[in-house]
Write a structure and sequence with these properties.
This protein has 302 residues and is α/β, with parallel strands linked by helices. The chain has helices spanning 3-13, 15-24, 38-54, 57-72, 86-92, 108-111, 122-128, 134-139, 160-171, 182-186, 230-251, 262-265, 267-288, 294-301, and strands at 77-81, 102-105, 149-153, 175-180, 204-207, 215-217, 226-228. The chain has a single domain (38-253), classed as Rossmann fold (3-Layer(aba) Sandwich), CATH 3.40.50.10490. The relative contact order is 0.14.
């Protein structure tokens, strides 16, 4: 309706009658807000995850306190994640912007996903992830100490191997930090026979903020959601902890050797930092396992 037509109607019906007519016969908005696209939905959900992570600032700092204390004591923070949770292990160390002080434990039999099917396929990995006793075989390779710390990631917190890894770390006397989706874990059933979950063996639980089922976007005509959110939340938590640990080590007079890009520090220094960081990691691992199995060998000799 044009402006002139509106004026004519106003004169004919009077201002109040014209207003009532408009209310009774609302016009469609010419610029109605369109529905959100799938990518916009995903980014909006990610902003909600950000808020969930930001609300955990005190817990993130607590984890950083424990990790820094362990590294300053010349011990290691053990990292474990099976399935896609291996990403959080490698996000902590070793990648650009990270530093030694961590022992990344990644079992290929549980995480080698790119073949999908056939030999070394996903079916086998998902089966092995719930084999009781496998965690004990993994941990037998390390001389664990109560001076160490552990970080175990599992979105559901319900698979057997991550749970048993946390249990093993806990039994060794160390602080255990768990990373999971609290919503997803709460809606999921533990694969362990006693029903215990990863959180039951953790001193501190951090939440990725991902929803039940992880996937966050609903597409018209598709009855299952797509696009998971745990990777976004988990990586934010890992890097927030990493930054806090770096600050603590630096304040203590032990600035970490950070894997840095040549574009930032120059090619020569970048190479020097990489070599020094890798050498430090090798020494850390040698020190960690210097006494492994010694008691058992002494028992055999007796």
């Amino acid at each position: 309706m044009t402006t002139m037509t509106s004026i004519a109607f106003g004169r004919r019906f009077g201002d109040r009658e014209w207003l009532n007519l408009i209310i009774a016969n609302p016009r469609p908005r010419p610029y109605a807000v369109p529905p959100m696209s799938p990518s916009d939905q995903y980014l909006k959900k990610c902003s909600e995850i950000f808020n969930t992570i930001a609300a955990q600032g005190d817990a993130i700092k607590q984890a950083a306190d424990w990790f820094a204390e362990t590294i300053l004591a010349d011990r290691l923070v053990h990292l474990f994640g099976s399935g896609h949770s291996r990403m959080f292990v490698e996000e902590m160390w070793p990648r650009y912007g990270s530093f030694p002080g961590f022992n990344p434990i990644v079992e290929l039999s549980l995480t080698f996903h790119n073949l999908v099917s056939g030999a070394n396929g996903q079916r086998q990995a998902m089966f092995l992830e719930n084999v009781p006793g496998l965690a004990g075989r993994i941990l037998r390779n390390f001389d664990l100490s109560a001076n160490d710390c552990a970080f175990v990631a599992s979105s559901s917190g319900c698979n057997v191997v991550p749970i048993e890894m946390a249990e093993g770390f806990k039994n060794a006397g160390m602080k255990v930090v768990a990373l999971c989706s609290k919503q997803h874990s709460g809606a999921s059933t533990s694969k362990r026979s006693d029903g215990m979950k990863l959180q039951d063996f953790a001193d501190l639980v951090l939440d990725t903020g991902a929803p039940v089922g992880d996937a966050m976007v609903f597409v018209d005509g598709l009855d299952t959601p797509v696009a998971p959110g745990s990777t976004v939340g988990g990586c934010m938590i890992v890097n927030a902890i990493k930054a806090e640990v770096a600050a603590r080590l630096t304040s203590a007079g032990r600035p970490p050797k950070v894997l840095s890009a040549a574009a930032v520090v120059g090619a020569e220094r970048a190479t020097s930092l990489f070599e020094a960081a890798y050498d430090e990691h090798a020494r850390n691992m040698a020190r960690l396992n210097a006494s492994i199995g010694v008691e058992k060998e002494e028992e055999i000799s007796e």
